[in-house]
Sequence to fold (210 residues):
Amino acid sequence: MNTVMLVGATGLVGAEVLKRLLADARVDRVVALTRRPLPAHTKLVNPIVNFDALASDEPWWKVDSVICTLGTTIKAAGSQAAFRRVDHGYPLTVATLAHRHGATCFALNSARGADSESRIFYSRIKGEVERDIERIGFRSLAIVRPGLIGGDRAEKRTGEHIASLVLGALAPVLPRRFRINPAAHIAEALVSAALGGESGKHVVLSEMLV
Fold:
């Protein structure tokens, strides 16, 4: 069996990942941890969880690989501390528990410019979670670093919407790394990494996601 855990399934990229996993003949079971129920599917196991108090010994932790697309904004989170909890604390806890139960592959949706030494808070947190998950010791670790993500979000992000209009208009003359990265392309990179399971650390840059 090929069992994949997905966290962040209700977000823009996560929903694209879930769609691909459920349709992929290589995947026997998808374990999607969410705060609210997802539509039922024969392949889907959908534990409803509190990410601040994850149970550590549930049988659904036993998976082959993990895809993490969790992420928020400081505005939505309400503070830098709350943002760090969602974008660093939750992914790290999931990675730690899944690895403890035998997962060998982890694919993380990060961000362009992620750097644990950055003076920019957002970039620093993204870099820190990359660094700390790498230290866990997965046999295969994929880091996907998109720039501005293209797609229709359930939540409205005014700044991203304006930026997408500007970047969309300038796309023909922009370097590839500054162009919009469609959510579907990011999802495809994450799924390919999780199912491919190539040994070592692999980074997918934004220019590879256009």
The mean pLDDT is 91. The domain at 3-208 is CATH 3.40.50.720 (Rossmann fold).
